[in-house]
Amino acid sequence: MELVVAALVGVAFGFAVSMGAHYTGACMGMSYASGALRAGSALLLMAPLTLIGAVLASGGVKNTVGHGLLAGAVGVGVALAIVASAFALTTAYNFARIPTSTIQILVFSVVGAGLERGIAVDWPTVEHLLELWALAPFAAFGLGYLLVRSFGRPLPPGARDGTGPGTALGLVAIALVGMGAAASFAMGANDVANASGAFVMTGLLSPTGAALLGGIGLAVGVLTWGRPLLRRVAFDLVKLDLKMAVAAQLAQAVVILSYVTFGYFTSMNQALVGAMTGTGYARGVGTVRWRAIRDILVGWGVGPPSGAACGFAAAFVIAALGWG
C-alpha cells in the first residue's frame, strides 16, 4: 500500500506540474502577446498567484472532484488510475502544443475508472458540468465581444510594440497585467483539484494539504515548462491589439471566477479561446485564425472520450496488478 500511495503522490505532483505549464498561455498569453510583459516576467508573476489561488480559493472545486463525481468509496489504487490517465493525456497534448481541457479529461477519467470498478457515477453532477462547459466559451465570447465594442477603436499603429503615439504601456497595459494576474489566481483555484482532488477523494490529505501540494506543483510547472504554450496562445490564435487583449483576459477571468465561486470548474482554454474569438469577431472575422481554433476544437472533441477510455483501461491494469 505504501508503494501505491507514493506512486499516487508522485503522479499527482507531476500532473500538477504538467497543468501549470499547460495553462501559461491561458493566463498570461495576452500580457505577453501585447508586449506588456516579457515571457520571463509573465511566468514569474503567474507562479505565486497560481499557488495562492490554489490554497485560498479551491475549496468548492476540491469538494466537487473529491465527493461529487463518484457516489461510492474510492481506494488509493483507483485514484492512482484516474490521476495517471489524466496526467498521461495532458502531457501528450502538451507535447503536441494543443491547448485542451484538462478538466474534461480528468472528469471523464473519473467516469471511466468508476465504470470499470463498478463504482456508481453521479451522473446528474456530470451532466451539470457538461452544461456549464458548453456555456463557458459562449459566455466568454459574448463578454469579449461586448467589451471590445465598448472600448472603441483599436489603439494607433505602434501601440502594441511601444513605438507609436498611442503607446501604452500605461494604464491599459497595467490593466492587462492585472487581468493576467487575476486569471493566474483563478487557474490555481479552478485547476488544482484536477491533480489533488484524488487525495480528498481517498482521505489521504486534508483539503488544505491537498491544495498546497497541488499548488506547488502548478507553480513549478509554470516556471520550468511554461514557455511553449505561452507562445502558442499568444501568437497563433488571434491578431491582437492591446484593447482586445485586455477584453479577452478580463472576459476569461470573469467566467472562471464565477464558476469557482459556486464550486464548479471549467476549461481555462475554452474560456480564453471563446473570449479571444469574440474580441476578434468584434474587430472583423479576418483577425481570427480559424485553422488554429479548429485544431483546438479537435482537441476538445477527443479529450472526454479519450479520458474515459484511459481511465477505464488504467483501472483495469491497477486491479490486475493487485493495487486496486
Give an overview in words.
This protein is mainly alpha-helical. It has one domain. 78% of the residues lie in helices and 0% in strands. The relative contact order is 0.23. Mean pLDDT is 86; it is low at 159-168.
Question: What would you say about this model in short?
Answer:
The chain has helices at 2-22, 24-34, 39-57, 59-67, 76-96, 102-117, 123-151, 171-202, 207-225, 227-236, 242-261, 268-283, 290-320.
Relevant terms:
324 residues; mainly alpha
- The total of beta strands comes to 0
The number of helical runs is 13
Tell me about the largest β-sheet. none
Structural class, from secondary structure content? mainly alpha
> What are the secondary-structure elements, in order, as H or E?
HHHHHHHHHHHHH
Spatial gap, N to C terminus:
10 Å
Our Rg estimate from Cα atoms comes to 19 Å
Shape: globular
Low-confidence stretches: 159-168
Strand content: under 5%
What is the total number of structural domains? 1
Mean pLDDT: 86
Percent helix: over 70%
Topology:
Layout: H1 2-22, H2 24-34, H3 39-57, H4 59-67, H5 76-96, H6 102-117, H7 123-151, H8 171-202, H9 207-225, H10 227-236, H11 242-261, H12 268-283, H13 290-320
